Structure prediction request, 602 residues.
Amino acid sequence: MRFFRNKNPFGGASSPLLVIGAAGILAAVVVAMAVIDLGREKQYMTQLLLEKGAALIKAFEAGTRTGMRGGFGADVRLQHLLEEMANQPGIFYLAVTDAGGRIVAHNDPSRIGQELFAPDVMAGLAPESSEKWRLAQEEGNGRQSFLVYRRFVPSAVGRGPHGMRMHPPIQDKSFFCAEDCETPGQRRDLRGVPLDIFVGLDVAPIEAARRADLQNTLTTAAVLLVLGLGGVLALFWAQSYRAQKKALRHTTALASEVVAAMPAGLLLVAPDGTVAMANGAAEALAGVAPGGLAGRPVDAVLPSGLLERAWAGEREMDIGLGGGPPAPLGVSVSSVATEEGTSVGSLVVLRDLREVRRLEAEVRRREKLAAVGNLAAGVAHEIRNPLSSIRGYAAYFGAKFAPGSEDRQAADVMVREVDRLNRVISELIEFARPSDLRRRPVRLSDLAGHAARLTRPDAVAKGVTVDLAGVTDGPEVAADPDRLVQALLNLCINAIQAMEAGGVMRLATGVAPDGRAFVSVADDGGGIDAADRDRIFDPYYTTKARGTGLGLPIAHKIVVAHGGEIVLTARPEGGTLATVSLPRASGNGGNGEKDAGENTRG
Prediction:
């Protein structure tokens, strides 16, 4: 016998699929949070670059308007302003183009006059009075820049973006004249010409910051994911532990109930040779109080060397359990080991065979009765008729002799012996014939009183007193009164014959603890020897000098035909107690007709 354990670490309710699902949901939540954070960071960086570019454009506009007004900074040319503003970290270039994308001013003077963007690209950019942005790939070096641009229209007079009045520039200053003036040294008049301002910003520092932030975000997400998965697994393992602990309690309780309710005796012997556990059936077989076997050495409970015997299946043997009297038991022994093969003791199962042996003896006795009954029926039929002729001739010849003569006495002896044989044959016929019962509701008290009256003359002749104090108005039984009285008569006659020196024959009726009605006959005789107890209901078995051995078998046959039981036990004060137990009447019997299925033989 081996004990197996559940290898699933998650138990029954905590399936690995649930853990995988929970981990997937947690991972999706963490990834979504990381993506949202990265998107928010990207939006923040884009807004930062856009605001930086817009600030540069507004600064450029302010410088332009200052130069157009003259006064302070009037000697500053547009080109110089662009070069000074572009000479800051994080700025690739500053450029002013016309509507077609031709560079009017650039922090790199070599680019003046070239196209910053092709006309179709300019059309797609569509500069307006508000700042716009886009990521641009420069054609020369392939570097990527964050481009901020907007439309700017210089005005000689009017209101600036802040509502301040603008004054015309000093005419002799060439603020807008650059190296590409149509006539060198002459002012190029760009007032009223639409111009577009472009600022190219370096995205590398921003990208480095984004990468660092991405790394931090991924690290945080990984830590959260690991911690979340650990928490989920801890929750599932805690749930699995509680579920397995609960299941173990239920299994232990169920196993304890099953072991306690087993009809067979169960002993678990520990490796140290002591009884580790014994159920109630084993304690009942040993005749000890509950808990009286646990902890005792196995040699004090079972025969020495029983556990060392190796056999397959169950063996029947007569053994005394716990020092009690020997009893027929079916014994099976098996070793108990864990899944790893470690022995944890031996399991001994004890099955009480006393009832089985009793039933086997009852079957053998009934088979014997059936055989004797069949033989008796044939013998009685063949002998009774010749006996009738012998008795008739004996009486005839006896009448021819004088009374008192030896011949007359011899004839009388022949007649008496024939009568005795005839009685024996009548008992044989009574024993062999089917038990045809005509049931009706009767009271056992009435039947007991009737049997006492019929046997009173025999009791008086033996000096026996009949005591009916225990006969009360008990329950009714469905019985054939004539046949049942015949059984009671046989019991009463046996009781009277058992008291050679006189005594008291006590009759009693009532209801037994099992609910059946009973009638009992007790005597003060010598009792029944233990050697004769198992044969008292066998035909022709008798301990009397002149008995036929058919009285008790006939009584037993009648009681069994009524569905009852007859038991003879020794009285503690001496004598024998014969008890007949019968089913109580159900209230629907007693139609006076022969019961179907009640015909039985021997």
Notes: The mean pLDDT is 76. The two ends are 48 Å apart (CA to CA).
